Amino acid sequence: MIVFLTGCGFKPLHKSDNKLNFYIQSIEIGEVEGDAGRTVRSFLINKIGRKGLNKHSKKLAVKVEKFTNGIVTDENTRVSRYEITLEAQYALFEPTDIKVGKPIVTGTFKARASYNVLLEEISLTLASEKAAIKKASMEIANLIANDLAIYFSRN
To answer: Which residue range forms the structural domain that includes residue 96?
Structure first.
């Protein structure tokens, strides 16, 4: 079985070559609106790096929308648990094509996280909400980074 797998051409992305790392690390990530968007951008920068930025760097545009839904109610019909859904759309452009609007690769991802409402402690509820946004943002950033790595490994 091992002999078979070595001949199939499979290369794990986490052991990628220097060429793939160069392409990933030379992506310029544009500003993203909203708190959740800025968190996604921050995680993307940490995930893919910014080592090779120059005038030939590809441009990444990301749009993040946040939706909040009450998912559990108590006997008094108060919402006791919320679910946050982040939906992110991204597009990667050649440096000269961003104004034209012709992306070379696009994608859409969703991530969900939930948090409890603590009626006695509003500050803890707010902290729980921020932690849920952070968790969903990290998942979105990982999905985008992995999608870009797959794109560059194939092209």
So the answer is: 16-154
Residue 2 maps to a domain? no
Q: pTM for the complete prediction? A: 0.81
* Across 33-37, 66-70, 94-98, least confident range: 94-98
Q: Give burial (CB, 10 Å; 0-12/13-18/19+) of 67.
A: exposed
Rounded-to-integer distance, Cα 72 and Cα 35, Å: 25
Query: How many domains, the chain?
Result: 1
With contact defined as beta carbons under 8 Å apart, do 98 and 60 qualify? no
Max Cα-Cα span within the chain: 63
Examine residue 10 and state whether it is found in any structural domain, yes or no.
no
Q: What is the pLDDT of residues 66-79, one digit of tens each?
A: 999 998 777 777 88
